[in-house]
Specification:
Layout (H helix, E strand, L loop, with lengths): L2 H21 L1 H11 L17 H27 L7 H31 L6 H12 L8 H30 L5 H18 L1 H12 L11 H17 L3 H26 L1
Amino acid sequence: MEPRESWAALAAGGIAGVCVDLILFPLDTVKTRLQSPQGFRKAGGFRGIYAGVPSTAIGSFPNAAAFFITYENVKSMLHHGSTSYLTPATHMVAASLGEVVACLIRVPSEVVKQRAQVSPSSSTLRILSHTLYHEGFQGLYRGYKSTVLREIPFSLVQFPLWESLKDLWSWKQGHVVDSWQSAVCGAFAGGFAAAVTTPLDVAKTRIMLAKAGSSNASGNVLAALGGIWRTQGLSGLFAGVVPRMAAISLGGFIFLGTYEKTRQLLL
């Protein structure tokens, strides 16, 4: 992959990440509060819908940039000499590695953001200092494992589906898809991936919001899923599925469409 292409992927990914995260922040807040163990109303309801936005604003660009520069470079390396039927596997590996790298930036931002979303009366800076004081630096990485375990299955579904839909549309019309068509493919791929990975998202939210010393604070994803199943059943595992699907479908449209358009402009 040429250095110019790498820089284009980095810049386009960062810009796309900032756009989608800030536009869809209110929907994300509603989803987090629906998944909160204290319940939607006690977590803030519709009050302070932008609580935690500074954390997202700071983390969005490097997080998305890290994902796409890893994704595009790994995809480029694996494409050389590979046959067409291995293409979906290439996209899966590239997306998975991209998520592992991006989560190193995403998780601290996500921990602070989600705690601010369910405590709208506390500032982002206060929550950050409280987390560092009581839990240390490792407190910012509470839920890293659960986030990676959510993001990798999500990306294993979303990115091969997105790439396949683009290829199919390109073949049907006889030329490469435009950025708006890529955005439509991203919306379908994102919505489907969001639905099937909601239980992992609920588990991740519970782990990040758990009080220090509680069972969920250990970060055991299977234990968190089991606890939700026993107390709330299937509805608990799919808490917030509608706003999650809505946010990620719209997010897929904005994120992947903006990425493709920006990358085209930069190359």
